[in-house]
Design a protein that fits this description.
This protein is mostly helical and 100 residues long. Helices cover 80% and strands 0% of the residues. The chain has helices spanning 6-16, 20-43, 47-63, 67-78, 84-99. The longest helix is centred in the first third of the chain and has 24 residues, at 20-43. It is elongated and about 45 Å long. The mean pLDDT is 91.
Length: 100
């Protein structure tokens, strides 16, 4: 999954206006939340914890209008806890976001 930052960047820019410091702070807050939720998903071993982590990721993605992440979170909701394919996709997306 190629992480597309255009919708996220537009959402953050609309929220921050002309304030580059606020833009950087919002982007960092998204990254930290994304990292924490991916970590929670990776540690989830039962259906309940997996679903909570996936729903949190979906909520984060929806809040910032990141369609591909919403789709991936929905894929996680349909998957078994600890699914290595899903975890790899989230970690790849996170790596792409961090490096962008």
């Amino acid at each position: 999954m190629a992480f597309e930052c255009s919708a996220l960047d537009a959402t953050l820019a609309a929220a921050a206006g002309d304030d580059p410091l606020l833009l950087a702070e919002l982007r960092n807050a998204f990254r930290e939340s994304f990292e924490q939720h991916v970590d929670l998903l990776g540690r989830a071993r039962c259906d309940g914890n997996w679903n909570v982590a996936a729903m949190r990721l979906k909520g984060l993605a929806a809040s910032f209008q990141v369609g591909p992440l919403i789709d991936l979170a929905e894929e996680a909701l349909d998957a078994a806890p600890g699914d290595p394919v899903i975890l790899r996709k989230f970690r790849t997306a996170l790596g792409e976001f961090v490096s962008s």
